[in-house]
């Protein structure tokens, strides 16, 4: 699956425990990444400061669903199900 341009669900729904530029403690689930622009595109994409966890994310119908809204729901559910 290819990421839907302008989706940004993976930059909002999950928590990120590794440091992100500007967020040394990472980001909380449901919090919009500060590097997501108004078009919901990552401003760190392709840059060396992009966190490894973000670069490793692979779009997949099981987590991205059929729409941005479904992706936010699915990723949010996975976040809750795997929270420690």
From TrEMBL:
InterPro entries: Puta_zinc/iron-chelating_dom (IPR005358), UPF0153_domain (IPR052572). This is YkgJ family cysteine cluster protein. It comes from Zestomonas insulae. The lineage of its organism: Bacteria, Pseudomonadati, Pseudomonadota, Gammaproteobacteria, Pseudomonadales.
């Amino acid at each position: 699956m290819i990421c839907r341009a302008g989706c940004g669900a993976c930059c909002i729904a999950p928590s990120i425990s590794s440091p992100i530029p500007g967020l040394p403690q990472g980001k909380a689930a449901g919090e919009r990444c500060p590097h997501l622009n108004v078009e919901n595109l990552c401003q760190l994409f392709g840059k060396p400061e992009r966190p490894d966890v973000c670069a490793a994310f692979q779009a997949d119908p099981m987590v991205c669903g059929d729409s941005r809204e479904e992706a936010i729901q699915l990723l949010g559910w996975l976040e809750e199900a795997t929270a420690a």
